[in-house]
Amino acid sequence: MREINFRQALGEAIAEEMERDPAVFIIGEDVGKMGGLMGEIGGLYDKYGPEKVRDTPLSEAAILGAAIGTAITGLRPIARMRFCDFMGIAWDEVLNQMTKMRYMFGGKIKVPLTMDALSGAGRRTAAQHSQSLEGMFMCMPGLKIVLPSNAHDAKGLLKTAIRDDNPVLFLEHKLLMWGGLKSEVPDGEYTIPFGQAEIKREGSDVTVVATAAMVQRALNAAEKLQQEKGLSLEIVDPRTIVPFDKQTVLNSVKKTGRLVVFTEECATGSFAGQVAAIVADEGFDYLDAPIKRVNAPDTPVPYGIILEDFWMPDENNLIKAINEITV
Amino acid sequence: MTVAKEKLLDLYRTIVRIRRFEERVSEEFAAGNIPGSVHVYIGEEAVATGAIAHLRKDDYIMSTHRGHGHLIAKGGKMNLMMAELFAKKTGYCLGKGGSMHIADLDIGMLGAAGIVGSGIPIATGAGLSARMRGTDQVTICFFGDGASNIGRFHEGINLASVWKLPVIFVCENNLWAVSVPTSTSLAIQDVADRGVAYGIPGVVVDGQDVMAVYEAVGEAVTRARKGAGPTLIEAKTYRYRGHFEGDAGTYRPQEEIEKWLARDPLNIFQEQLIKMKMLTEKQAEEIDKEALEEVAKAVQFAKESPFPKPEETLDNVYA
Question: Using the beta-carbon criterion (under 8 Å), do A69 and B318 form an inter-chain contact?
């Protein structure tokens, strides 16, 4: 075993998959000599050259459109979209093209395309570089969505994404990219299947479903509540929200009788709302208290430390919600 | 330019087959046998006929919402097309796509596109794919004058020209984006002028003349195949019917319609071939009869085919 950070996880996953399969290539902005905004794919340009590590014009619709064209004709592009906020510029490529082609062409086409993009707040980058948009992307059948919460999961899930025959959106939370904790990973190759949630901490009193950077905050809160109140939280990380492993969540709620969904999204139209709806629908009899959601307010992400820290859900918000549903 | 007689007769068969297919689609739509929305290609057939004649089976085309003609010219099967239009399980897309969403990768048809302009960057990607896989395949991307005003026209053609990709961008300028004329949506006379912005040739061609289209696209295909990059070709043409079946097209001046009807692409090509002694009137009649029979068989196939089962709705979302 050895330890790697989140950026190394991405770089290793992409490097290993390019080595394994000659159809895999990278297309996007600043992927060449710069090696990604954080240097996370540094070295690949030197190894593979500009043919397979393709710096593009600043042109998101061309990046995603061209990626689609290569995916349906035998290649496996990794389209690096930088910030998920920028994907609005290529909205139609996601909304009406890559996610619809297989279905509307009667299953006779496959679109093996991985998009990766930075997501989330906490870096003081304000309204256009800080959003968590998974709820919006979740409304498009045909797309798979990955939200890793640590370096170990990021590497295994990204390798699975690149091998998947469908469009996959892989979201990288900024707090994990910049200064997230290191993870232990195996020396050899490993992949993590989609649609398998992981229980990051076992517990018996309250189930907390958390994603991305909120997983670590949930773990911090769990430790605090254990020590201060003897309260036992079970932290469930879905890891992929499409496909969503609802059974692991339902099993957990059956055990604890209580659910809090803890994500960084604006509450309205969120993945958190979908989890709450599923448990209300299929796990109502397990519940001993109302389902709580702890999310961001329905405002754009503000700038600066004071406002953004207020906006972002944190341990205190989570503990407050848990206190409301425990005696 | 000299073209072999057999090739010319092939082109003639293609334009007749497209015309007869589309006339029947129009009738079947009016009879209530085709649900939804259908855009027929009548009046514009010379463009697909002349352009696609240069392509091999493994070359690609990217089509539009008005795509039946492109598919027929690329070798699409009429019975599977008609069954798809009738929303039958035996159709190209199992009845899930309809008129605006037919693809056939076996013959290099990458799909029709219901969103105007969406095919342009995708065609650029098909060109990139050919380059990266080391083949000499070329891609023809069809789109209309309306699409030439969409952002992806710029993004897709720019990328193809920067990377010198083997893509031929064919603008079918039929003068109308639904009810809005090019006179109020373009500040220039010719879309082809925009080629200058990308450092690629921009060529205007008579879209009612199969031979003119054939010649212009031939040069562009040769250029693309040898790695010299893309070309923008603008074919001046006209749709004889409304934007969709059921649209009477009353926003268009009568004298404009009559002017274009007088330059019918099928008539022009037939007269050219007869004058060149490449076609006799008797042959023309036979080709017409064959096309009508092929269309009738396709309709019969569509009518006799089963609908999909309701629960098949749930299939084919993911690979």
Answer: no
CB B98 within 8 A of CB B36: yes
Q: Is A198 strand, coil or helix?
A: strand
- Give mean pLDDT, residues A77-104: 97
Residue B2 pLDDT grade (very low, low, confident, very high; cuts 50, 70, 90): confident
A305 is a domain residue: yes
Among A131, A158, A185, residue at a domain's last position: A185
CA atoms within 13 A on the CB side of B5: 7
Q: Are residues A296 and A176 in the same domain?
A: no
Number of domains in chain A: 2
> Which residues of chain A make contact with B127, given a CB cutoff of 8 A?
69
Model confidence pLDDT, tens digit, residues B62-103 = 999 999 999 999 999 999 999 999 999 999 999 999 999 999
Q: What is the ipTM score, two decimals?
A: 0.96
pLDDT surpassing 80 at residue B1 = no
Domains of chain B: 5-306 (3.40.50.970)
Q: Is A144 on the interface with B (CB under 8 A)?
A: yes
Q: Which domain holds residue A42?
A: 2-185
Check B125 against A61: CB less than 8 A apart.
no
Tell me the pLDDT band of A179, cut-offs 50, 70 and 90: confident
Residue A158 pLDDT: 98
User: Does any domain span residue A193?
Assistant: no
Angstroms from A305 CA to nearest CA on chain B: 37
Distance between B134 CA and the closest CA of chain A, angstroms: 11
| Whole-number Å distance between alpha carbons of B168 and B232 | 6
Q: Could you give the angle at the alpha carbon of A56 between the alpha carbons of A51 and A60, nearest 5°?
A: 135
Q: What is the mean pLDDT of residues A22-33?
A: 96
Residues A99 and A166 in one domain: yes
The reply to whether A222 and A255 lie within a common domain is: yes
Distance from CA of A201 to the nearest CA of B (A): 32
For testing the chain B interface, which of A18, A105, A114 should be mutated: the one with the most B CBs within 10 Å? A105
Residues of A annotated catalytic, as ranges: 129
pTM of the full structure? 0.97
Write the residue in A25, A69, A110 that is nearest to B126 by C-beta.
A69
